[in-house]
Amino acid sequence: AQSVAQPEDQVNVAEGNPLTVKCTYSVSGNPYLFWYVQYPNRGLQFLLKYITGDNLVKGSYGFEAEFNKSQTSFHLKKPSALVSDSALYFCAVKGGEGSQGNLIFGKGTKLSVKP
Amino acid sequence: DTGVSQNPRHKITKRGQNVTFRCDPISEHNRLYWYRQTLGQGPEFLTYFQNEAQLEKSRLLSDRFSAERPKGSFSTLEIQRTEQGDSAMYLCASSFIPGNNEQFFGPGTRLTVL
Lengths: 115, 114
Description:
The complex is a heterodimer of chains A (115) and B (114). In chain A, 0% of the residues lie in helices and 50% in strands. Chain A has 115 residues and is mainly beta. In chain A, strands 2, 5, 6, 10, 11 and 12 form a six-stranded mixed sheet that branches. Chain A has a four-stranded antiparallel sheet with strand order 3-9-8-7, with no helix packed on it. Chain A has a two-stranded antiparallel ribbon with strand order 1-4. In chain A, 35% of the residues are buried. Chain B has 114 residues and is an all-beta fold. Chain B contains no helices and eleven strands. Classes of the chains: A mainly beta (115), B mainly beta (114). At the A-B interface, strand 5, strand 6, strand 10 and strand 11 of A face strand 5, strand 9 and strand 10 of B.
């Protein structure tokens, strides 16, 4: 069965410091991996995805994520955090070609960036 | 705004009543998905359509839930005889297949069952 784990309920960082939000996955075949962000009272916004190719994926708002097949991880990173990055972050996975179309989401990680 | 829209944004109902939500996807998208999100959890898949065909239903979608996409454009999600456990945010998303694979989400409909 496909699954996603986000081991941290909350991540706290100081503004200007690098941030990492962790995600590990379990899926048969080649995974399609996604990160979404959710601000209060708003829908999920797409940040970035890994389908194939370069293991380092760059996305919106300066975020990037590294696909590591051996560790089945897809951690979200940003070199310098902003207070405005404070939000709820979700990792999601979909099986590759031939799989069902829906996304499997993690429980989410609350990112808090302090000035 | 050409994003995914959902109506209503909020719905408060009494237990036992029926409710219906609407989702309008991005116009050229052929896939439409429904998810449910409860507090402290990630979205959970309910069902999805490709054009007007309902291709997959989650075990979460009990007999009280029904979804339609009659013309392959907008979709409705109906919950009959609502229960307090149905209280959640109901999210709609759309995508284009074959294509970029990412799903674009609407703002959601928050349902409160009293």
